[in-house]
Structures are given as C-alpha cells and as structure tokens.
C-alpha cells in the first residue's frame, strides 16, 4: 500500500546557511511542491544544520521515527540531503519508511537512488581532498588559518534560532490559552485541538504532538 502522508527532512551543512535559510528554504519549497503534486499530506517538517558525513543526526532520527509510526514516506529534496555517505543512505533506505527524493520523482528505483548516493559520497571525498590541499598550501604561505570570529558567528546563529522559537511560541500561546480555558489540560489534548484548528507547527506541519506543545509551553 502506497503511503498517503509524508514527513519532510531538509539539511544544510553550515550554521550560516541554517540561520539565513539559504538552501534550506529552497529544499523545503521543492519538497512541499512534490508532496502537493503527489497528493501526500505533510505531517511535519524537520530542518537540521549538520554535515552530510555525520551519521548521528537527531532531526533525521526524529523524522524517521515519525514516518515509521505513521506509515508515511520520508521526503527529501535530493539524495545528498540524506547524507554524503553511501552507508548512511542505505541504512535509511533499509528502514521501515519509504523514501522519496523530490528531484528524482516518486517512481525512482532504489538503484537510481543508490547511484546518486555513490556520486554524493565521491563528491564529498573530492571536496575534502581539495580542502586539505588548499589548507596545506595556505599554511606553507604563512596564512593564518581559522576564523577569528567563528565563536561570534555560531552565537549569532544560535541567538537567531532562539529568537525565532520565542516568536513562534508567542504567536501560538493565545490559541493554547483558549484551549486550556475550555477545559483541555493534557499535552495530547492540546495537540489534537491545535491540529483541529489548523494551526501550523513551527516547521510548517499540519499535525501537533505532545512534545511540540511542551516546547511551546516552556517558552510561553
């Protein structure tokens, strides 16, 4: 049976991209358009700032857990958004959730996806080799390596994420207060009411869960 719902996962590699939305917004737009054209209901969306060579990615794990529990498909814009290691992509493909790659289409075979994963893995290796070579040459020339404002840029990205979360919580709290005033006290109950009202989650999803409500209340 083909899934009728989807969980969207988007990933960028740098904090700067994550803070500005560069790359992330384009991925999200492509995935949403794909789901719309295929008639897939979007349960939730997940965004992550992490290297594609890193296997331990909390948002990817959370997206896969939701997709499996709801018998939904995991949707990504491109294969390399799953990861730049063939082993990582294969592990996801071997899971209990179907995986759709927007740029390849719903009918793309597993072989096509794995070929794309091999290409992504090779590209990651080449980038790493070029980076090491460039750093070695710069060091020989006596160039000072590293960004002296690295910590400041990371702090800025973190502050931007926190500010966005605070603004979202403030926008949702009036609806939660009304729901609580009507006698709904549990996190699951509030989540169901928010879903019924059509209130979008922080990632643009249509369905709320208790964990998301708890996060909003912690900031409210």
List keywords for this structure.
220 residues; alpha/beta; Rossmann fold; 2 domains; four-stranded parallel beta sheet; 11% strand
Which helices and strands, and how do they pair?
Layout: E1 5-12, H1 15-20, H2 24-38, E2 41-49, H3 58-69, E3 73-76, H4 86-93, E4 99-101, H5 110-140, H6 150-181, H7 187-197, H8 210-219
Parallel strand pairs: 1-2, 1-3, 3-4
Helix pairs in contact: 4-5, 6-8, 7-8
Q: Specify Rg, calculated over alpha carbons.
A: 20 Å
Biggest sheet: strands side by side, in what order? 2-1-3-4
How many helices does DSSP assign? 8
Sum up the overall morphology in one term.
flat
User: Strand-and-helix sequence, N→C?
Assistant: EHHEHEHEHHHH
CATH homologous superfamily heading of the largest domain: Resolvase, N-terminal catalytic domain
Q: How would a crystallographer describe the biggest sheet?
A: 4 strands, parallel
Query: What is the CATH topology assignment of the largest domain?
Result: Rossmann fold
Helix content: 55-70%
Class from secondary-structure proportions: alpha/beta
Q: What is the average of the pLDDT values?
A: 85
β-sheet strand percentage: 5-15%
Our count of domains comes out at 2
Query: Whole-Å distance between the termini?
Result: 41 Å
**Which stretches of 5+ consecutive residues score pLDDT under 50?**
none
């Amino acid at each position: 049976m083909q899934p009728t719902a989807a969980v969207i996962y988007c990933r960028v590699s740098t904090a700067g991209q994550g803070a500005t939305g560069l790359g992330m917004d384009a991925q999200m737009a492509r995935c949403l358009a794909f789901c719309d054209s295929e008639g897939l209901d979007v349960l939730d969306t997940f965004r992550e700032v992490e290297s594609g060579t890193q296997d331990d990615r909390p948002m990817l794990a959370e997206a896969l857990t939701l997709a499996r529990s709801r018998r939904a498909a995991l949707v990504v814009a491109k294969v390399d958004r799953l990861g730049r290691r063939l082993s990582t992509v294969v592990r996801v493909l071997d899971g209990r959730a179907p995986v759709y790659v927007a740029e390849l289409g719903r009918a793309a075979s597993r072989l096509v996806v794995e070929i794309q994963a091999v290409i992504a893995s090779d590209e990651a290796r080449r980038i790493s080799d070029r980076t090491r070579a460039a750093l070695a040459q710069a060091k020989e020339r006596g160039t000072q390596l590293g960004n002296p404002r690295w910590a400041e840029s990371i702090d800025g990205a973190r502050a931007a994420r926190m500010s966005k979360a605070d603004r979202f919580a403030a926008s949702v709290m009036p609806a939660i207060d009304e729901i609580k005033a009507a006698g709904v006290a549990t996190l699951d109950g509030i989540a169901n009411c928010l879903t019924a009202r059509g209130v979008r989650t922080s990632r643009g999803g249509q369905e709320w869960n208790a964990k998301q409500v708890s996060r909003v209340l912690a900031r409210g």
